[in-house]
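PROTEIN ENTRY
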Amino acid sequence: MSLKHRKLGRTSDQRRAMLRAMVTYLLENGQIKTTVTRAKEVAPLAEKMITLAKTNNLAAYRQSLSFITKETVANKLFKEIGPKYADRNGGYTRIVRIGPRRGDAAEMAIVQLV
């Protein structure tokens, strides 16, 4: 049996906090630079937040606020990002591999909003 999610060398609460921060930063700035394994974990979470923003109701807004760490980013998600992808059915993020990191040769990637 394979694992559903990657553990990323952290306890569950640390992992959740890190992923929440990364998704918030991605939605705020449009792209983040991270390792490939982290990128593969962040992309589906960001896609879920954008899908929530497309419904654009109070329940969806509150649900996104429970995951996103900044209220300004949640406002941006529902006012700008959600309407931008209204006619698109998924595939809101892209992972681009950029080669190994210099210090420890970890495979790096850029996660960006399409």
Observations:
- The domain at 13-113 is CATH 3.90.1030.10 (50s Ribosomal Protein L17; Chain: A,).
- The chain has four helices and three strands.
- The helical segments are 12-29, 36-55, 58-65, 71-84.
- The first helix runs from residue 12 to 29.
